[in-house]
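Design request, tokens follow.
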């Protein structure tokens, strides 16, 4: 289990710029936050440091719940989006706030790491975590993931190096997933399943 931030680290996180997520501190403090996946170092000079989506979640969590904010992250410390099929799918208002915070943090990461400051295209982290990134875009837009016994979207990796598959038993909901991903900066195409006559989506991060 990931340790919660120390008191000093939490002070740095809480003092982050509310608009950009920029943080300041000693080099060792900032490096430690990067190692914890709570911050990232901007690749361009002056190489400032900014909160990741997980860092934003820690910032918004009550001081008494830092462990919950950190433990809920996965895949290298970034928010754990629902791929579909997880047991006990959480649809509570608290989960909705967490998803919203993670999505805003990801948009900020896009803005800070993109060559033109744009937020309309997936960033490098998303291209390295395709299924989680696509699922976060869907969940942030209000699409419901599948539960163990409930219908919803399911996102899975594919044999293609930069594509994920998205499935939903409801054709109208599948079309909504396609629209959502397209608006989030993904290239989406619909295909027929080899067996069963169903349809699924292939989605890839748009580069331009």
């Amino acid at each position: 289990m990931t340790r919660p931030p120390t008191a000093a680290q939490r002070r740095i996180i809480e003092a982050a710029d509310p608009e950009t997520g920029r943080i300041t501190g000693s080099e060792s403090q900032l490096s430690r936050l990067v190692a914890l996946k709570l911050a990232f170092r901007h690749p361009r000079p002056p190489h400032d440091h900014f909160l990741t989506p997980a860092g934003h979640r820690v910032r918004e969590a009550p001081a008494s719940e830092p462990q919950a904010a950190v433990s809920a992250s996965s895949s290298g410390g970034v928010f754990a989006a629902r791929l579909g099929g997880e047991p006990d799918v959480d649809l509570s208002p608290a989960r909705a706030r967490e998803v919203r915070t993670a999505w805003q943090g990801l948009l900020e990461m896009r803005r800070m790491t993109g060559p033109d400051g744009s937020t309309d295209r997936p960033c490098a982290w998303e291209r390295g975590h395709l299924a989680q990134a696509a699922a976060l875009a869907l969940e942030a837009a209000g699409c419901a993931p599948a539960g163990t016994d409930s219908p919803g979207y399911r996102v899975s990796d594919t044999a293609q190096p930069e594509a994920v598959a998205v499935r939903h038993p409801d054709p109208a909901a599948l079309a909504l997933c396609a629209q959502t991903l397209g608006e989030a900066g993904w290239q989406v195409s619909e295909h027929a399943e080899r067996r069963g006559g169903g349809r699924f989506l292939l989605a890839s991060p748009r580069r331009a």
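Comment from the thread starter after seeing the answer: thanks! Residues 159 and 165 are 10 Å apart (CA to CA).
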